[in-house]
Amino acid sequence: MFENLLMGENSLQSLKFQSFVLVLTSFILGFSEFIIIGILNDVAADFNVSLAAVGLLVTIFAIVYALATPIVSMSVGHHRLYGSYFVLMTVFADSNFLTALAPNYLILVIARMLIAIVSGTLVSLSIAFISLLAPLDKRAGIVAWIFSGFSIASVFGVPLGTWLSGYASWRDAFWLIGLLAVITLIFALLCLPKELRQAKTQSFFKQLAIFLDRRIQLGVLLPLLNLAGIYVFYTYLRPIFSQGMGFDLNLLTFLLFVYGLMSLIGNLYSGKIAQRHGLTTMPY
Fold this sequence. Notes:
Layout: H1 2-38, H2 40-47, H3 51-76, H4 81-101, H5 105-133, H6 136-167, H7 170-191, H8 204-208, H9 214-234, H10 237-244, H11 249-277
């Protein structure tokens, strides 16, 4: 009985560390995705291009992310999750290093596209790992934390990247992201099981059939409109604060932190509303 209890405690500790690594993964993915928001001015000045051209990186990233994620996720198929994570995380880290080294705007665009290609699938792999590792009663909470990694990135990642960009170089932010990705990869290789595989996936077109369901259509339409409204503003938040409203860099970093913090609080609070009172209360 004592041995079973000890094994249970060890298993729980292992799950906690595995969960930490997967949340850290989503944080780094979010950090790399959102960082461009805080460094628009510096990138534009470095490559002598307009703010609109640099802002277009967000659009390109989103399009590639949306198109590549289902295709790459299906190509993972029945391969081992461990090996797939290793390959995709290596591409992610190298692409951030390439971004830091980019000699011109074209290489920067290519590097950002590579990051977008692997990011969505890395999120789905994290969810797949937890679905297979965590007991049912803990699974939803861990998945929620994995997605919260993106909100945490907006709270801490964007202000940190803005600060680095202002006092050193915007390239240093991507060196930092690449280094964190390598550290996370090492942690993952040490703690994640090697033989786990997903269930065999259906064909791409069979999976698309779910979009015939009106509930799925509504579920996709709501975040689509929500994010479209947010990112038009959020992408140009730094130019709005610095050029339009005249805030200096120190205050800008604080304002970006507050913006991200309120976003995180909103996400957590809306989840509690939906859980306790149902989605009928949410619109109000």
